[in-house]
Amino acid sequence: MVKESAGDAGGLRPRPLRQDEWDIWYDTLLRAFGGIPEAAEERELYRSLTEVEHSLGVWDGDACVGTAGAFSFRMAVPGGSVVPAAGVTMVGVAATHRRRGVLTSMMRRQLDDVRASGRSLAVLTASEPAIYGRFGYGVGTFAASAEIDTSRVRLSVPPDTDDVRLRYAVPADVLDACEAVYAAKVPRRPGMLARQPGWERVGLLDPEGERGGASPLQCVVAERDGAVVGFARYAVQPEWGHGGPDGIVRVRDLYGLDPAAEAALWRFLFDLDLTSKVVTRARPVDEAWQYQVSDIRRCELRVKDALHIRLVDVGAALEARTYQAPVDVVLEVDDVFCPWNGGRWRLSGDGKGASCERTTDAADLALSVRELGSAYLGGVGLRALGEAGRVRELRRGALEEAASAFASTVAPWLPHGF
Q1: 98 phi, psi to nearest 5 deg
Q2: Which position among 57, 228, 285, 288 has the lowest Cβ density within 10 Å, counted as fewest Cβ atoms?
């Protein structure tokens, strides 16, 4: 979560956070997001997850006026590898100190620290995305939300769906089994984050004051031959209209190890008694249920930006993933904010691996590090960026070659915010 400001810092400089400053620092962040206090359980969870050694504060005398943090994530990239990435988070600037460069100073220090730590990628979700291009972040993944009228929409499922058994479970009681399903999914889809210790608790957060009239968190697990092959976490919001029951199913999480498991879970949610709508947020844009429904128009599908990606070390980042088609291309990279990335890089790779090294050879494509971030996971096509005027083709055919190589057979997806 990120709240922005911009300008000249005027002598205000970020410094590492001390553990005993956390409450003041976090309250500054909450004020930047409107000042609504969080539930005690949520606050304590994020206290435990905060990596003080990767957190920065800007102080004006005794007052904290800027906050920034980074989580030590491991993110799936095309090819199935899971690589270190800094999850930029908890960024806020006091309204009294806007347009004084506080954000810029924190972004400068943070990216320098990420580079020094050896991590080649930084990622974030932005409350106000417009400003992050100038720091080299590009929108790399999208997420789909839907409000499905289950009173009119039917679901057509694969033939082996009936082989999946469903049962109710207390969410905390099946946490380990659910996390095993999640872990198996991570390398299959770029953008997914491997759970670091403590992050499994985020999926169980369920403050009563934030339910909005819905039930406590519920869970159903999918099993085949006695093994857990999927799960869904959700809440039911009872509603009663003039025509009778009109409840809403609010989906929190849904994962299946195979198409039948996922279909069984979706069918269960579609068919819950006394409900007529399924609401889901931040799902992959290419999920199979979209092609199993009888009427996609009554699903009110919406797509928005999700993960913003920044290559901190161009060479290492491009070497960390594989490529959908063979590629041998020289990239002329522009990176004003992290000038160590600027210049020409020869990328050679295929489905088995890649190398990316400095070169003096003539460039085939010219682009900024922002476009590389957008294309990195395969969620944004290089060809589309070229047609938008964001990538210049200097050798005929190079754009098509690179676009095919950077593509992903599955849409990248960020499974949860941070």
Answers
A1: -75, 155
A2: 288
pLDDT digits (tens, 9 = 90+) for 80-133: 999 999 999 999 999 999 999 999 999 999 999 999 999 999 999 998 888 889
Span 59-65, mean pLDDT?
Answer: 96
268 as an active site residue: the answer is no
Q: How far is CA 270 from CA 157, 169, 249, in A?
A: 12, 19, 8
Out of 26, 71, 73, 132, the active site residue is 132
> Is pLDDT above 90 for 187?
yes
Q: 204 and 178 in contact (C-beta within 8 Å)?
A: no
- Look at the pTM and tell me if it is higher than 0.70: yes
- Is residue 323 annotated as part of the catalytic site, yes or no? no
Torsion of CA 113, 116, 120, 121, to 10 degrees: -10
How many angstroms separate the CA atoms of 200 and 239, rounded? 31
Q: Are strands 240-241 and 244-245 parallel, antiparallel or unpaired?
A: antiparallel
What pLDDT is attached to residue 244?
83
